Amino acid sequence: MDRIRGGRFLVLGRAGMDLYADPPGTLVEDATNFTPCLGGSSANIAVALTRHGLKSTLLTSVSDDAVGRFCINQLQRNNVSTDHIRRVGGPARNSLALAESRLKDARWVVYRKDAADLDMTAADVERLDFSSFDALVVAGLVLATEPSRSASLRAVELSRQAGVCVVFDIDYRAFAWASPQEASAVCAQVAALSDIVVGNEEEFEVLSGFDSNGFAAASRLAATTAEIVVYKMGDAGAITLHGSQQERTGIFPVEAVKPMGAGDAFLGSFLAALADGRSVRECVIRGSAAAAIVVTKVGCAPAMPTTGQLDDFLAANGAPTEFVAVA
């Protein structure tokens, strides 16, 4: 995966404000204090990349109000380029989530009516010089509706023309789509155009059209179009398919305070390790370690580990549980 060694990433998708009930363990309805954090899967991934010294640019739209400005300010403080973020007026509003730092029965309420990030257009995409990037990261929620869907498909097209590596985080959220069938068709289209595809069991079932198990869909991608496919299985670890190899890795057991942010941390640190020229096996392990770190802290973007923090965690915890080569 030499194409991403330059470490210049373009990430498509949302940035939002997360409000965590404070102190940890407090229910939202009982809270008298909230801690604001930058959130949104794409923003989290972009921050995860910069924590490793890589260059990341977020392409999205934000509401032209205090919440949108909060997101831009937080991105800039985390060294994410905001040069291509467009501010949207009218009824559009930034994503806002109220969340709990609780592992058991953690709940969050997400406000996404007239979501500003879904207002991204093909014109926004076409303003960029794709030759200035090494990889495009597409988080699946940007595909859920127009005009963001067409804009994202155009970004994939321009990336492929420029020889840019396309990374697809399936990121399936049923509430965002008109129907499972539409999600299946669109996500399968993007997956077939991607070099790296990452998702969990349910998300790969989406790619299969819900007609077969997710691992069969992951295997087909690895055998045909994708260079690397990571099939995540929660507490059971992950199976990574690359070339003719399948490798299974476990997880790092930790005392988590929340379930959110693990997938974003995994992808950011996985890609950072790949850009550093590490083996696929080591990239997955570092991604898994980052996921373990993030779930032990409040917030998502603020919890993304640096390279040094990741190295320290690995030195203290060794290998993940049950690493085995399965083929």
What does this structure look like?
- The protein has 327 residues and is of the alpha/beta class.
- Helices cover 34% and strands 22% of the residues.
- It is built from 10 helices and 14 strands.
- β11 and β12 form a beta hairpin.
- α1 runs parallel beside α8 and α6 crosses α7.
- The longest helix has 15 residues.
- The C terminus is likely disordered.
Secondary structure elements and pairings:
Blueprint: E1 8-12, E2 16-22, E3 33-39, H1 41-50, E4 55-63, H2 66-77, E5 85-88, E6 96-99, E7 108-111, H3 122-126, E8 135-139, H4 148-161, E9 165-169, H5 180-192, E10 196-200, H6 201-207, H7 214-224, E11 228-232, E12 238-242, E13 245-249, H8 262-275, H9 280-294, H10 307-317, E14 324-325
Parallel strand pairs: 1-4, 1-8, 2-6, 4-5, 8-9, 9-10, 10-11
Antiparallel strand pairs: 2-3, 6-7, 11-12, 12-13, 13-14
Helix pairs in contact: 1-8, 6-7, 8-9
Summarize the structure.
The protein has ten helices and 14 strands. The protein has helices at 41-50, 66-77, 122-126, 148-161, 180-192, 201-207, 214-224, 262-275, 280-294, 307-317; strands at 8-12, 16-22, 33-39, 55-63, 85-88, 96-99, 108-111, 135-139, 165-169, 196-200, 228-232, 238-242, 245-249, 324-325.
